[in-house]
Each structure stands twice: as C-alpha cells, then as structure tokens.
Amino acid sequence: MSNINYISTRGQTPPLGFSAAVMAGLARDGGLLIPEKILPPDDRFRQWPALSYRELAYELVVRYADLSQVEIAKLVHDAYDTFRHPEVVRCVPAGPVQILELFHGPTLAFKDIALQFLGGLFSLLLAKSGGHMNILAATSGDTGSAAIAGVRGRERIQIFVMHPRGRVSAVQERQMTSVLDANVHNLAIEGSFDDCQRILKELFADLPFKDRHALGAVNSVNWARVLVQMVYYFHAAFRHCLATGARHVQFAVPTGNFGDILAGYYAAQMGAPIKRLILATNENDILARFFNSGAYSLGNVVPTLSPSMDIQVASNFERYLFDRVGGDAAQLRALMAGFARTGKLCVEGRDPLFVAGVGDTAATRATIKRYYDQHGYLLDPHTAVGVHVAEQFLDPEAPTICLATAHPAKFGAAIREATGQDLAHHPLLDALADLPTRCTRLPAEAAAVRDFIAAHAV
C-alpha cells in the first residue's frame, strides 16, 4: 500500500491520497492531480522485464495506490479478464515499424485498458464509502463507449457522456447510444469536442454543484487512467528489447488530448527503456507546433478522418507543462491564465525526449492504403497518422513501436475512402447496426448539461 500524496498542478488544493484523488477527478482549484513525485526504479524493477502484462500492471499500481495488495490484484484480474488477447496487447511487425495493438478490449479501443480498470476501482471505493457518483465525461469518440462499458449497470454510479453531435464516427456513436442501461445517459452536444471539454471543466469548477451531485471524472484528467496506461509502454519496451537485444525503443503516439503520450513520458521517467517519444497529430496540430516551436496557440478545429484527435485544447497538457516550469505552480497558473485570455502561451527550450510531426488527411489515406497493399496490415486512421509521422523519425538504434489505438472497423468509411474497398469489419460492431439507441441532444451550454444532470443524478 502506497502512502504517496497527490498534488494539484495549480498548487492551491491540499494534498490527497490516491483514492481521494481518483474520486475527485479534477482538483478543486481547477488544476490536474499528479503524484508528488514520480517514483524511480527500485530493487524490484530488475524483475519487471520478465513479467506478464497483468503482473506489470499490479507492480505499477501498487507503487502509487493506497489499496491493499489483494484489492489491486483483483482489480487487475477483473479488468483484463475481459480482453480477447491473453497478454492484453499484441505487437505485430509491419514494414519498418512494430504495431502495438491496444484494441483487444470490449469496445475495440485503447481506452478500454484504463477504463475497465477504472470502472472496477470506482465500484470498490464507493462500496467502501457507501457513497454514490455521477460521472461526467466528454468524448471525441472512443472514451465514451469505453467509459460506458466500464460502468454500465454498476450500482451507485450514473454516467453522463457528452459527444459532439455528428463529429464522431457512426460506429462510435452507435457503440455509445445503443447501451440502454438505466445508469447510462448519452448527450449529443451541438458543438465541437472542445465545447464538451469546456462544459466539463466549467461544471467541475462549480464546486457546490460538484459536491451536491458527487461528480466524478473518467476522462484522462483522472490520474488513475494515466497510471494504468503506463503499463503498455513498459511491457512493449521490455519485450522488444529482450527479443532484439536493443537497449531502448522509441514510441510513435497519435494524440489529441495528450493523455496517452503523457503516460509514455512518465514511464520514461520511471526507467522504461524509451529513447524518444514521437508525437503525431492530424491537421489539429497545436501539440506538434508546441514541441517544434515552444508556442502553444489555439487554431480552429478541423474535421478529419481521425476524429478522436480533432482537438485544440489538450486537457492533459497542463500536467506536462507543470514539469516544464520546474513544478512552479504559481508560474503554471500564470501561464494558464494567459492562455485563457489570449489563446497562446510560450515555453523556452526543447525537451529532447519528444519529436513531433503532422499526418494530414491525404497522408492518412495514403498510409492506410500503402500499409494494406505492401504489408497486408490494415491501419485505422488514427494509427495511420502515427505511422506516417514515425516514418520520418526511424532510428537504427531504437526500434519504432507505433501505438494502434483502435480497431479499423470503427472507421469503416475512412477505410473505404483510403482503399476503395469495404475491408473494415468486426462482428462486435456489425452487430450494432440493428440495435435500438437512446440519446439526448443539448446545446453547447453548461447550463443545459447542468440541468440534465440535476434531473437524472443518482
């Protein structure tokens, strides 16, 4: 059982234990909760390369969580017993890269890896406290269905999932809206994903409302999600180094919200053999521009073939920015206040762990077609963005592992557009076509979402 405390990036919330941080989601001062320190390798670390995925997950969580070893072991077992691959994830060679398939969970997206764990964790903590929770989530596609799959039917929990109407794939929408459990509420917001995130942050900042309705978060603002996502970086890096004799690897990560690649950043700090993180964005390139120039500046959201990355304001970026300013919460607050006023902030210097690039729509189509034609591997459009950018940074001394964030069948229209063929199917998704659905349309206004939650909260 760990006694590590969690602090806010904005420095104005008292430290919390792990369980309290998980239930809080966002810090009360509007910041993000992070461990007071990232733990360096210890004596047990030497055993980690030989561990299974589940064993690695246990070892990692036990270092950061104030839970018993028995509780953690059960959470890990229950979460990953739902996956179709025995090792949870799978690495497949394709041309010059390795594809790390993270989509073998219930909803065919990498979000399942964290949200199957988080659903069980919420239930455990609520059973201990006798409390209840109303989860508010914003999704650009995959988080919503994975979060719903993690908590559907669970006692003491209601979940409210906002998605931008018409801006997620048809399959992603149906995965969410075909779940008719009484504790599941899908909200189609008339706006962009950034509008959904804005509403979420506004309602969490309304502390009387948050407290009255016990609001909880499943987005990657919740530290538990980032923690559990570190596992696949360790697992893939160790396995590849053992198999090839390489000293380290590099990971290419398609990202919009900075949560997935942030887990890799923390894994590298903890001692994972990671030489470099390759950040890949689509036309919504605010993060790529930051890592190439030091300037983080808003643009307009551009709809693309990779809708889960159609984001301008990356909600996890603040955790990384906190490190870049040396853990100075006052400086961080000033930067975020300036960004709120002007839509821009700047940080001097470069982080040698990161390189960044853009895979636009034309490159996404071309990469999907080329990898299918030449290597017999079908990429989803998000993974194709990562692979396209990865090819610009290949390193003979560090094998390149590209994170495959979703099964291509979730984006059948994009696959047809890229290949001219109807190739992307999965029986789980094909079965959704004739299911009834339920969804509520709301304007992009915090007041409308607030009223809906108040009327349906547990």
Fold and architecture overview:
The structure is a single chain. The protein is an alpha/beta fold and 458 residues long. The protein has a domain of 223 residues: Rossmann fold, CATH 3.40.50. Strands 3-4-14-9-10-13 form a six-stranded mixed sheet, sandwiched between helices. A hairpin with a 2-residue loop joins strand 3 and strand 4. It is globular. The mean pLDDT is 95.
Brief overview:
The protein has 458 residues and is of the alpha/beta class. Helix content is 43%, strand content 16%. The chain has a domain of 223 residues: Rossmann fold (3-Layer(aba) Sandwich).
Map the helices and strands:
Layout: E1 6-8, H1 18-24, E2 33-35, H2 53-64, H3 69-80, E3 90-94, E4 97-101, H4 111-129, E5 133-138, H5 142-151, E6 157-164, H6 170-177, E7 184-190, H7 193-205, H8 207-212, E8 215-216, H9 223-244, E9 249-254, H10 259-269, E10 274-281, H11 286-293, E11 295-297, H12 317-324, H13 329-342, E12 344-346, E13 354-358, H14 361-375, H15 381-390, E14 400-404, H16 412-419, H17 427-430, E15 440-443, H18 446-456
Parallel strand pairs: 4-14, 5-6, 5-8, 6-7, 7-15, 9-10, 9-14, 10-13
Antiparallel strand pairs: 1-2, 3-4, 11-12
Helix pairs in contact: 2-3, 2-9, 3-4, 4-5, 4-9, 5-6, 9-10, 14-15, 14-16
